[in-house]
Amino acid sequence: LFRVMGSGLSPDQGTLNNQPLLKYFKNNIQSISVHAKVLHLSRNETNKGPDLTNSLTGVLTRFRQSPVAFMADIEAMFHQVRTPLKDCDVLRFLWWPNGDTCINPEEFQMTVHLFGGISSPSYANFALKRTAEGNRENFDAETINTLERNFYVDDCLKSVEDEETGINLASNLYELLQKGGFRLTKWTSNSRKALESLPESERAAMVKDLDVSKVHVERALGVRWDIVSDKFGYKITIKDQPATRRGILSVVSSIYDPLGFVSPFVLLAKTILQDLCRSNLGWDEQISEDALHRWQNWLSMLPKLERIVIDRCFKPTDFELRKSIAWLDEVENAESPEIIDDLLCVGGKLRHAPLENTAKHQVILPKQHHVATLIARHYHQLSGHSGLEYVLSLTRQKFWIVKGRLLVRRVVNDCFDCRRRQSPVAEQKMADLPKSRVTPSKPPFTFTGVDCFGPFNVRRGRSLVKRYGVIFTCLTTRAIHIEVASSLDTDSFLNALRRFVARRGNPEEIRSDNGGNFVSGEKELRSCIKEWNQDKIHQVLLLKNIKWIFNPPTASHHGSVLERCIHTVRKVMRALLHEQTLNDESLHTLMCEVEAIINGRPLTKVSDDPRDSEALTPNHLLLLRAGPPLPPGKFVKEDLHTRRRWRQVQYMADVFWRRWLKEYLPILQERQKWNQPRKNVEVGDVVLLLQENTPRSSWPLARVIEVHRNRSDGHVRSVKLKTSTSVLERPICKIVVLISVTWALKILKIGK
Q1: What contacts 18, CB < 8 A, 6 or more positions away?
Q2: Is residue 667 within 8 Å of 616, Cβ to Cβ?
Q3: Where is the chain membrane-spanning (predicted)?
Q4: Exposure string for 491-517, b = 16+ CB within 10 A, e = fewer
Q5: How confident is the model over 129-142, as a mean pLDDT?
Q6: How far apart, in Å, are the Cα atoms of 10 and each of 7, 17, 133, 546, 731?
Q7: CA-to-CA distance for 354 and 135, rounded, in angstroms?
Q8: Residue 171: what pLDDT?
């Protein structure tokens, strides 16, 4: 800090805002604000710089490693780091010499970094790192490592094995920091001998007298540390806060627990807060009676946290390093095991081979031990996620894992990266056919599937217009009915449906695909069907007592009956059209002819034996004959009686259904694929969402939030997914299961 002499401030410099800051137990000091703005800019709007601060949790965890602990602080750390001269102009401020406000203030300028400056921690930590780097050759590795890893900004927390080591390390640290222009002071330790080795002026205020009969509580990065008992504890001060979201958040946030010792208890309050957030309650609105009761119960238990004490050092007092490592219950399959350097190793027959000793006598490990799993996982990642045999060969360069092939196979199969690149899509045993496919003696088209195809160009005057086909398929008899639609809006589809109902009767159930199931080439068809007014369609069907069922999106195999019929229709139309352009009347006629041809296709095997009955076709039920009428036969007068003709028609329908049951249904018995039951997809599974014509590396991740179980066999064949942007419904053949929730819970249980 120095007084600025000269012509004064330039118009774009400005000064920092400052005022006295009064603190209890401390001298009055001058506070300089770096938040004040000049020309709409603040000193804290500069670049923050890289985050060079060590992890708070890491420093505290390393502080708990060994029995002898000490703590120190760098005096005025930010003020020991100079600011470049070209940047000092932004650190000017006005102040009265000797605090005399009766005279004009004078201009001063800071030459060091300020407390509260956004870039100060980065500059100071950089200077600390450079101190360690520049003196690496002059100090031992432990001192350098302490400076690099055991400082959290200006606080040093370190634990060592014995007092002598601690005294030497403290002396070396003090000298090392002096090399960088820093002074390490306010020393605290749980070792009286270590404190006695330090000058009284360098000790913290609470331990200057070395009276161990008193309770000395220090703050180790905010954590209460009783240096006499060497334990961590809590001091709870409950502030009166209203029972609102804002008040609950304030109380929960006031519990400082960086190491998570009481996180299970705090989690109860966070769960209450989460429930209030889900209910869309305002920040200052009164909470419900149930939430208030839970909150008050939690508050009543909060003071009991002060009873919790945790040993600072997590290493047992009787801990000692043992060198002998052997698993005597896992060596039955080892080749002549030997003890080498207190390790149980493989004897084998390679004693004279030109290999390293570790490759000839590998250390024996049991496959169920966690260390063996870590070793297999390490070599799997080291080898670039190679396969079973290569990873096993790498592990056997140093280790012989009993039944290692099983372990390596499990590690490879459980690898997330490998599953993402190589796992197949999920599958499940093919479901039984629904009742609509196997129920006889119902009128044709009682159970109907509907789909659209096209468009077809039709000549109308001098212009070409588009027409579409609407195909209705009887799910039981496989008969089809085709209507022509002038467009694919909702009204045009409903008119086609009304014509179908008028000619074929009222169906009980209609199944159809979602608009997203159409192939990518039929973009116009897909977009039109997506724009259908579903409410209007459902209202019309409700009046006719028709149940409408949609297949899951992108699950074209759920409507394979319809897809196959559309494929057949297109095949026949290509043979009849020969690239011709028809008018409306010709297109209607063509559709009727195509319908007749397809309804005459055989459903059963066509026999070469003339003595066998003709193959069963849908026309046997629709027309009571296989196809076009034959030449007229001989009629007798009795055939004209109405009752006789009704009995004849009924008899022919019964013949159709008997043959349908005996000849057609057995063909549907065999499952062509998906023959074996698989593990069901579960809620919480993490999956990869398959996307056609997209590289696998670009497929998005999703989480299963709902499963749809089949009522008859309990298998899951479609799920609801939540991605980062939307909620989707997909069949399981369109997902790849990466992490099963059952597997994850099992791993967590093993870890505990």
Answers
A1: 30, 31, 32, 33, 93, 94, 95
A2: no
A3: none
A4: ebbbebbeebbeebeebebbbbbbbbb
A5: 91
A6: 9, 17, 40, 84, 70
A7: 44
A8: 92
Nearest to 81 by CA among 189, 144, 153, 174: 153
pLDDT of 157 over the 90 cut: yes
CA-CA distances (angstroms) from residue 252 to 280, 283, 308, 644?
19, 15, 18, 88
Tokens of 78: 């930010």
Q: Give the count of beta carbons closer than 10 Å to the beta carbon of residue 19.
A: 9
DSSP 24-80: TTS--EEEEES--EETTEEGGGS------PPPHHHHHHHHTSSSEEEEEEETTTGGG
Q: How far apart are the C-alpha atoms of 158 and 675, rounded to whole Å?
A: 63
* Whole-angstrom distance, CA of residue 582 vs CA of residue 573: 12
H helix runs in 186-309, sequence order? 192-196, 245-253, 263-278, 289-301
SS3 297: helix
Q: What is the phi-psi region of residue 288: left when phi exceeds 0, alpha when psi lies from -120 to 50, beta otherwise?
A: beta
Average pLDDT rounded to a whole number, residues 592-611: 74
pLDDT tens by residue, 533-572 = 566 666 666 666 778 777 776 666 666 677 777 777 777 7
Q: Could you tell me if 620 and 656 are in contact, meaning their C-beta atoms sit under 8 angstroms apart?
A: yes
**Look-up: residue for tokens 């407390």?**
115
Terminal-to-terminal C-alpha distance of the chain: 56
Cβ neighbours of residue 645 under 8 Å, at least 6 residues apart?
Answer: 639
Measured between alpha carbons, how far is 309 from 225 in angstroms, rounded to an integer?
10
Place of tokens 């966070």: 270
For the record, the structure tokens of 291 come out as: 């939430």
DSSP-assigned states of every residue in 91-149: GEEEE-GGG-TTS--EEEE--BPPTT-TTHHHHHHHHHHHHHHHTTTTS-HHHHHHHHH
pLDDT band, very low/low/confident/very high, at 139 (cuts 50, 70, 90): very high
Query: Which range among 382-386, 510-514, 679-683 shows the weakest confidence by mean pLDDT?
Result: 510-514
Q: Which two tokens stand for residue 435?
A: 């009742």
